[in-house]
Structure formats: structure tokens, C-alpha cells
Amino acid sequence: MMSNHSSATEFCLLGFSGSQELHHILFAVFFLFYSVTLMGNMVIIVIVCVDKRLQSPMYFFLGHLSALEIMITTIIVPVMLWGLLLPGMQTISLSACVAQLFLYLAVGTTEFALLGAMAVDRYVAVCNPLRYSVIMNSRTCILVVIVSWVFGFLSEIWPVYATFQFTFCKSNLLDHFFCDRGQLLKLSCDDTLFTEFILFLMAVFIIFGSLAPTIVSYTYIISTILKIPTASGRRKAFSTCASHFTFVVIGYGSCLFLYVKPKQTQAAEYNKIVSLLISVLTPFLNPFIFTLRNDKVKEALRDGVKCCCQLLKD
Length: 314
Prior knowledge:
This protein has helices at residues 20-50, 57-85, 94-127, 132-135, 138-154, 157-163, 181-186, 193-226, 231-259, 268-292, 295-313; strands spanning 10-13, 90-93, 173-174. By secondary structure, the chain is mostly helical. The model is unreliable at 1-5 (pLDDT under 50).
């Protein structure tokens, strides 16, 4: 416990409970997931940049989404892995805690904005294909990406600032594997109710603000697909949206459970599980979702592997 008049200058991350043997198993599992996440998303970024067949708005957005997935998992997982290796509690300074929370929230918000833009892109491709190249030109795509990144980082400045204006004098033991906002607010001696309500409203605006165009776009997309007379035509049209739709369900589902609730503080174990879905599982699944269900990406990967094999033989 800390003095009522002092605030924590560093935090001890409790991480995962259990024996050291269990921690070593978790380290191996999460390290494998992290390695595959980095390699898979890097492969997507490279093939989108070098393969001419993937020079379209959808893959341009996909490249940025993969970059965001690498960032969000790298912000969290290395700290978590280090904590699993340490025999005692892991400490993190106040400034490092501020930086980690800000980057985590900013990258996540940028991802939501980009997912909304990708949904609109799919709507234009399916519902207005003749004007697709005119509407989704390179200038528009670049502008959309810039706005997504700027909005993501600017929108999280006040929430993080407000979080760290409180005095953390109850304890400096943070029951999480990273600087989670909900667990930080539990340590405050101040009344956090009003700030938590404002944070809830901001979370609603950010998540539902990007979810709304996604829902509207897919309503029109499904309506258009159902009007296609042939089964093969319907299948081909839906295949262009299936990967994005799958990713949207996983990504939004996890964040709705974690952030869209009036009370930001909740059971630590529940919080850890949902955080793992966001920071480990979703980035890990991203390359599989967008490659296994996409013929163009699979072709580009096959050609890339053939080219590498040919270079090795020479």
C-alpha cells in the first residue's frame, strides 16, 4: 500500500498467475504466435508493395492494416513475454506506462477507422463497379489512410491524459500484463466515475462511428449480391468481401466486450482474456484470414515462393 498523499511513479505488472513452469509454457506459445504474426503480416506488406496484381485500393488498405497489426502486437507482446521470463514481478515506469497505453489505444483507433474505410471500399467495388476506379483513385486512398492515422492518434490524447491525471495511491500493483486503463483506474484514490463515463461515450463514438458505415455498406452489399442471378456470380462477389467481414466480426466483437461499457474497471481475468484476443489472436489470424480466402493473394504468394526457390537454385 502507498501513502494517501503520494502517487505511483512506477507500476508492478502482476501478469499471469501460476507456476514458473506454466509461465515457460505460456512464453513458448505466445512467442510462437508473435513470430508467426510478424512474419505473416510482413509477407502481406511485401507482396502488396511488389506484386502488380495487388496494386488496388483493397490491397493498399490491407498493407496498412497489416502494419497496424504488427504495431499493436509489438506494443504489448514483448513486454508480456519479458514478464513471463522474470522470476518476480515486472516493473514499468510511469512514462513507459503512459507511452504504452497511448500507442495501444491510438493504433487500435486507427485500425477501426481503416476497417470502416475498407467496408466502404468493398461497397463501391460490389455495388458500383463501373465507377470504382474513379471513386477509389490513388489520391482518395492516400487521403483516407492519412485521415485514419491522424484521427487515431489525435483522438486518444485526451483519454490518456485524463487517465494519468488521477492519483494512483491505493497501490502500484497492476493486475494485468500491460498498462491497461481499466486496471489503472482501479488504483486511483480519486472519484473516476465522471471520467469513466466520458471515456465510455468516446469509445461508443469511435467504435460505432466506424461500425456504422460497415453495417450500412454490408447491408447494400448483401442486397446487391442476392440480386445476382447465378450462384457462381454471387460466390465471386461475396469472396471479395468475406475476408474483411470475418476480420470485422472478430475485431469489433472483442473491443465491444472490452471498451463499450459505462464502468471501465472490471474483473482482471476477464480483461486479460479479451486483451489477448485483441493483441495476440487477431493479429495472428490476420494473414490467414486475408490469404486463405483470397485467390489473388494466394497466387502472389505462390509466385513469390517459386521466385525465391529459383533464386536459391541459381
